[in-house]
Amino acid sequence: MSEISTDLVRHLAGLARIDLSDSELESLTGELAQIVDSIAKVSEVATPDVVATSHPIALSNVFREDEVRPSLSVEDALRGAPEREGDRFKVASILDEEQ
Amino acid sequence: MAKDKLLDFDKAIELYEPVLGFEVHVELNTKTKMFCGCANAFGQGANTNTCPTCLGLPGGLPQVNKKAIESSIRLGLALGCEIAEKCRFARKQYFYPDLAKDFQTSQYDEPIAFDGSVTVELESGRELTVLIERAHMEEDAGKLTHVGGATGRIQGADYSLVDFNRGGVPLVEIVTKIIEGAEADAPEVGRAYVGAIRDIVRSLGVSNARMEEGNIRCDANVSLRRRGDTKLGTRTETKNVNSLRSVERAVRYEIQRQAAILEAGGTITQETRHWHEDSGTTSAGRPKSDADDYRYFPEPDLVPVAPSREWVEELRATLPEPPAARRTRLREAWGFTKLEFQDVVNGGLLDVVEETVAAGATPADARKWWTGELARIANAQGVAAETLVTPADVAQLSSLVASGELTDRLARQVLEGVVAGEGSPAEVVEKRGLKVVSDDGALIAAIDEALAAQPDVLAKIKDGKVQAAGAVIGAVMKAMKGQADAARVRELVLERAAQ
Amino acid sequence: MSELITLTAAELAAKLASREVSSVDATQAHLDRIAAVDGDVHAFLHVSADAIATANRIDERRAAGEAFGELAGVPVAIKDVLSTKDMPSTSGSKILEGWRPPYDATVVAKLREADLVPLGKTNMDEFAMGSSTEHSAYGPTHNPWDLTRTPGGSGGGSSAAVAAFEAPLALGSDTGGSIRQPAAVTGSVGVKPTYGGVSRYGAIALASSLDQVGPVSRTVLDAGLLHDVIAGHDPFDSTSLTDHWPSMAAAARLGATGDRLKGLKVGVVKELSGENGGFQAGVKQRFDETVAALTAAGAEVVEVAAPSFEYAVAAYYLILPAEASSNLARMDSVRFGLRVNPEEGPVTVERVMSATRDAGFGAEVKRRIILGTYALSAGYYDAYYGSAQKVRTLIQQDFAAAFAQADVLISPAAPTTAFELGSLVNDPLAMYLNDVTTIPANLAGIPGMAIPMGLAPEDGLPVGLQLLAPAREDARLYEVGAAIETLLTDSWGHSLLSQAPLLTEVAR
């Protein structure tokens, strides 16, 4: 049985910055517990001798030359902004400090 | 904010061993950003250098800047690091409005360079080797401006504005292993270490390396270990200490602050602290906690970086002589004492002295002019000495003195002329007519005149009271307007008096 | 209903090239069809206001004698996951409602360069999370074969648009089957290219290491023609392959003409053949018949084992949510999209982000973000994400072993025919199992194709066949796919989609 609890889901929702309601928390806890139980079996075959595959087609050293490409116009950059002041994106005051 | 209690520094060191660690962020001076082709440039309007990738728009994807990889490898090599056979980027995930994708593309458990060392030299001549744990690549965040409130700081602001021009600019973060044994030198070690990184970065040309502009940013970790204990104390991380002097002050402050807390029976909180340049103090920031879960995982939009050994060796061949090795070599070649050499280094005059020697001056002369007269003028004018005259000017001046065409005193006048823009030393000598009078005929005439005017002196000299000649020499030098070699005048005076 | 809309893209392209038909007429015919039936089907989230003007420009240039690519003037529908400068791009989510990107996805730019005519943006499960298109924030798409059923997902809009003759071609994206499964349940053709074969730049990312953009059509040849337009290296996508790709259309034409099936080694994947139950009877029946037909046509059918496939769905539902939780972090109300202020308490940016993401994301998206956040959390990474990446390796090894025995692998493309709207939407686990047949290809990066193989006797709904080829062997899929398509349609005497209900055209 998985260890998914409402507290854990609340913590995860905090990390994921989603303001879940209590009823959402409750239903998600049940669903996640069920899902996690069914997917935890991956560790059965993931033995230490098996290497991990992060990309299905392995490539390496894919680089771009250090040459300037045109940027967006400022208007295009800000076009979707929910709020702006001058040419900058405007956000509500920040509570937390930088990481 | 309550004022921190501080323990006397010497007392703190007597009771505790300071343990240090530094994280230095170096902003690379590539033409473009780390993961997109937007210009790595500032000074234009906000959000002018942005694209779907560095703005974190849906669908944007990163592409690695090859030059940034090269610069990182060169920096790693210059730090004596191993270069990874294969390394990856990872996503460091946290939400913040200046972080366009709400994750930072960084390197986590696979840095491009690791296991290096930097030897720093302290003013006392003591040398200390700082071990480098790793140097890894990452991207910068955008720039936040806090509006409203009293201070322009984050606390109390009404709202904030974001400019993503800096978002995605390449950084290399250099992380030291813990530094033990610095003892009372700990604050200076901090300054010297960051200074050494700055010199290396500058010599490589991979960064503009101006701390005041944020090209190099230092986070200083400080903890104290009670004498006799083996366990490390709890550390604090003082963020963004942005000048060499501040690094020294911040380390010193943290040692004194932590010692005072520990002496009072308190415990140190593991936290970030902010350095306040104006008051020379640190203040508590965000506590580190278990909630810091960055959920790192390999960046799936990028493929591994696997620099071939050939490429690494090609890059190694482009490395300039390491600043520390160069200093040792030059000091030995020039035969300076440690103190003499330190004068040159501290004055930032190493390059010009080297060029002056290359232009033909003796090392002693080059040092004397640059750290003496030129440093004095530069200081008075509030400019850098190397902006006043060229190394070639100094070499020429020095050779005019060596050949006896100028006296030291005349040479100083010539230098004034050169600084004033009157031309090269030779031209100033010509224009001002400052050449030493080396025509014995003219000198003898002046000497005979002076001896005739002072018969009592002549008599004394004839009596063997040679020191009386000074009065005649003075008169002759005055008559020659100083443009005579005093030693030669003395010789001639004694010669004429004997006749 | 205009005849122009029932033509295949290749047929329409030929009429356009000979100037028998104008692009304006062809485009108008499709716009009329959309106006007539999309109220019921709801395949489109947005219909382009520029389509006729675009078509007109192409006609003028053609009249002036300009030479064009084969698909010039042919209308195409675009899945809403793809960024389009001139149309909103929402990925089926409220959080991006009305968002008009300042750039085109590379594949969209390639469509425009090849002078196709974008008709509009097609509906999808929100951020491509789903197998039924019911998770769209803008309401579900209905299956043209039976409007009470789902068209599959996440690309149900694209498959339904093609199956309902609203567009001859569409673009889709396939992370775990989102092109192939909808194709299977709508009787259309869909291809997931080799990972890296088609650029992902400008495709709103679901799971970066799994996503691939690909063609949706009514015939294998049409898919090949569209594949040729969108494939190729893109320096903006670091995972894009630099391979020079052969023409997929040429491969399809080759396959349709000859006896390519004779001597072809066809592997039936034991774990995907429904032997252990779980597959609808009619699906199993049509699959077995197709295997028999292939044998009769001279193919050498062998059974291959892929023991690790048992873990594929589990691995997929760790990798996908993990990568998605990270890719969707940028939906934070700062630079684009929705912004919602908290109803009570202080308005700080942290609380605005949380309130926005609560209001902007649907239940399935929240579920997967939380799951992905969990899978990547400190202390769980190795057991979950790390293990899932290892399962990928095992699955690749299984495929390598299978392809040592067979030229192509086949299986049903979906375990069932189209299911009823609403029947699985509240049972996420059951919904996830719909992708059991398609997921292994995404985990391994290999190309896959779905083509119709008949109607299930019990419900008269389309059944799809999945073909898989080794990585980079996309052309083999087209050759063999066209050969099987020819074999089956010849045996039926008509195309499968010609049997689809006409749909009531309602004047709107």
Q: How does this structure look, described?
A:
- The complex is a heterotrimer of chains A (99), B (499) and C (508).
- Chain A has helices at residues 6-15, 22-39, 42-45, 74-78; strands spanning 63-64, 84-85, 88-92.
- With 99 residues, chain A is mainly α.
- Chain A has a domain at 6-43.
- In chain A, strands 2-3 form a two-stranded antiparallel sheet.
- Chain A is flat and about 50 Å long.
- With 499 residues, chain B is an alpha+beta fold.
- In chain B, the strands form 3 sheets. A 9-stranded mixed sheet of chain B has the order 3-6-7-10-1-11-12-13-14. A 3-stranded antiparallel sheet of chain B has the order 5-4-15, with no helix packed on it. In chain B, strands 8-9 form a two-stranded antiparallel sheet.
- In chain B, helix 1 (9-15) crosses helix 4 and helix 9 (363-381) packs across helix 10 (391-402).
- Chain B is elongated and about 100 Å long.
- Chain C has one domain (3-267, 405-497): Amidase signature (AS) domain (Amidase signature (AS) enzymes, Alpha-Beta Complex).
- Chain C has helices at 9-17, 23-41, 51-63, 106-113, 156-163, 180-186, 220-230, 248-257, 281-296, 312-327, 349-360, 363-376, 382-405, 428-432, 439-444, 474-492, and strands spanning 44-47, 75-79, 117-122, 169-174, 189-192, 212-217, 265-269, 300-304, 408-412, 448-455, 462-468.
- In chain C, helix 7 (220-230) packs antiparallel against helix 8 (248-257), helix 8 runs parallel beside helix 16 (474-492) and helix 10 crosses helix 12 (363-376).
- Chain C is globular.
- The two termini of chain C are 14 Å apart.
- At the A-C interface, helix 1, helix 2, helix 3 and strand 3 of A face helix 10, helix 11, helix 12, helix 13 and helix 14 of C.
- Strand 1 of chain A pairs parallel with strand 2 of chain B, so a sheet runs across the interface.
